[in-house]
Structure formats: structure tokens, C-alpha cells
From TrEMBL:
Entry GO CC: plasma membrane
Annotated InterPro entries: Anti-sigma-K/W_factor (IPR051474), RskA_C (IPR018764)
Protein name as annotated: Anti-sigma-K factor RskA
Single GO biological process annotation from the record: regulation of translation
Gene Ontology MF: a single term: sigma factor antagonist activity
Length: 278
């Protein structure tokens, strides 16, 4: 199973941050149990977020505590101790240590929450960047596939043209043009036939695509009797194809549009193109 789509979706980052709906989070947990790769990715994301938060953590300086303590209100107590001059001394009652720590802890908690929100925002930024990068990678892959297909199609056309040029210039081959039997319909084909060996090629590139469930079938005629010369491929209609070997003395070639797979005898009402051997 290809897990890259799940890993690149960004759902794992949201799961680690606790931002997924319960139903979606349950799916991620189930995937973690089924696929170790998903669990490893979740662990790696959590480690990345934790490392980022630690790097951005700031420890308050000692002066912060001193300023905080200096700002605390002082209370005047009633207990006095004799001074050297005999006047009562003023005693300032300090807050309990626990109370002082509580005030400092509140500041630390507030700072921690701020860092947490900053880390969350940074993680969400990374998630969006990763998701956007995933989209761009997918686009590049699709563009690469499309380019490869275009190159393959171009190479195919070049190869077909080169074969056509070789057949056309071969003195041992006879070219027979097959014209449409219906003057109002523009369609034709060309046959290359070796009279000595019976070797036979056809260029069907000027024929319209066969309807669904139909297929072109080539025939050669001797004394009016048609003989099957093979089916024209549905997948390589634009390419020159080698057909069945003919018998000596063929006088005409014709193409009919038959049911897919062909027939042993032609349906004359389905005749498309025909041409006599000169």
C-alpha cells in the first residue's frame, strides 16, 4: 500500500497537535497500529515539534524575580523589638514563601503558554508549508508524466513515418490506395504489398476511429472471392501495421467495419474503402 499520500496530507501534524476531530484522530490511531511507517512518522513529527519548542524556550533572568519581589506590597506589623535608642522598631511582614512562589509561577505559566502558542503557530506554518510543497511535488510529477507521454507519442509518430518512407521507397513493394466507397465520406487507407512474397502492410492513419464494439478488417480479393487479411489494431490506428500474408494474384484490397474480432466473410454493406491493384 502506498502510504505517501497519508504522510503528505498534513493530517499527521494536526493529529500530533491535537487539532483533528475525534473521528479523524481515531483513523490515524488505527493506521499507526496497522502500519509501523505511520507510527514512525507520527513519532518523528512529535519529536520535531518538541525540539522546536525547546529551542524557542526562554528562561527568565534573575532580575525579573528581583523586580517582582520589590513590587510586592509591604505590611506594617505590631511587634516591636527595642532599638539601641529605645524606640520601637518597625517590622515589615513578608509574604509567605509559598505565596511568593505562586506569583512567580503564574508569570512562568503565562510565559509557557505564550511559548506554546508560538510553537503551535510555527508548527502550523510548517504544516502548511509541507502541504503546499506536497501539492507542488504532485504537480511536478504529473507534468513529468505528461511530458513522458508526449515524448513517447512523438517517438511513435517518428518511427511510423520512417517506416512509411521505407515502404514507399521500396521497389519490391506495390502501393495500393484504398478510396472511400461513399464519395461524400472522406476516408482512405494505403496498402503496401510484395507480390512475390505476399508480405502485406497497411497505413490506416486516414481512417476515422472505429465506433465502440466495431473494428476494421482488411480483405484481398482473387477472382471476386474475398480472403481475410487480418484485423486492424484498435490501439495503433495511427501506426503502420503488418497484416496477414496474401496469396499470389490478389486483384483488389478492401476494408470493412465489422464487429470487434472480425468475421470469416465480409459484410458488404459495411464496406468502407477499396482499391484495385494496378
Amino acid at each position: 500500500m502506498d502510504l505517501s499520500c497519508i504522510i503528505q496530507s498534513g493530517d499527521l501534524e494536526l493529529y500530533v497537535l491535537g487539532m483533528l476531530p475525534p473521528e479523524e484522530a481515531g483513523k490515524i490511531e488505527a493506521l499507526c497500529k496497522l502500519f509501523p511507517e505511520i507510527q514512525q512518522e507520527v513519532d518523528a513529527i512529535a519529536a520535531t515539534f518538541e525540539a522546536g519548542a525547546m529551542q524557542m524556550a526562554v528562561t527568565p533572568s534573575a532580575s525579573v524575580k528581583e523586580k517582582l519581589m520589590a513590587s510586592l506590597p509591604a505590611k506594617t506589623g505590631t511587634t516591636a523589638t527595642p532599638e539601641a535608642n529605645g524606640s520601637p522598631a518597625k517590622v515589615v511582614e513578608m509574604k509567605p514563601v509559598a505565596e511568593q512562589k505562586s506569583s512567580f509561577s503564574k508569570l512562568a505559566i503565562a510565559a509557557s503558554w505564550g511559548l506554546f502558542l508560538l510553537a503551535t503557530a510555527f508548527s502550523y506554518y510548517l504544516y502548511n508549508g509541507k502541504k503546499e510543497l506536497g501539492f507542488e511535488v504532485a504537480k511536478l510529477k504529473q507534468a513529468s508524466i505528461t511530458s513522458e507521454q508526449q515524448v513517447a507519442e512523438l517517438n511513435k509518430k517518428v518511427s511510423s513515418y520512417e517506416l512509411y518512407r521505407q515502404l514507399k521507397s521500396n521497389p519490391s513493394l506495390t502501393s495500393v490506395m484504398l478510396a472511400s466507397v461513399k464519395p461524400e465520406v472522406k476516408q482512405q487507407a494505403e496498402v503496401f504489398w510484395n507480390k512475390a512474397t505476399g508480405e502485406l502492410f497497411i497505413d490506416p492513419s486516414s481512417l476515422p476511429p472505429a465506433p465502440k464494439g466495431k473494428q476494421y478488417q482488411l480483405w484481398f480479393l482473387i477472382d471476386g472471392q474475398p480472403t481475410d487479411a487480418g484485423m486492424i489494431s484498435l490501439t495503433d490506428v495511427a501506426a503502420i501495421q503488418k497484416m496477414k500474408q496474401t496469396k499470389p494474384g490478389a486483384q483488389m484490397f478492401a476494408i470493412t467495419l465489422e464487429d470487434e474480432g472480425g468475421k470469416p466473410t465480409p459484410d458488404l454493406s459495411a464496406l468502407v474503402v477499396a482499391g484495385k491493384v494496378s
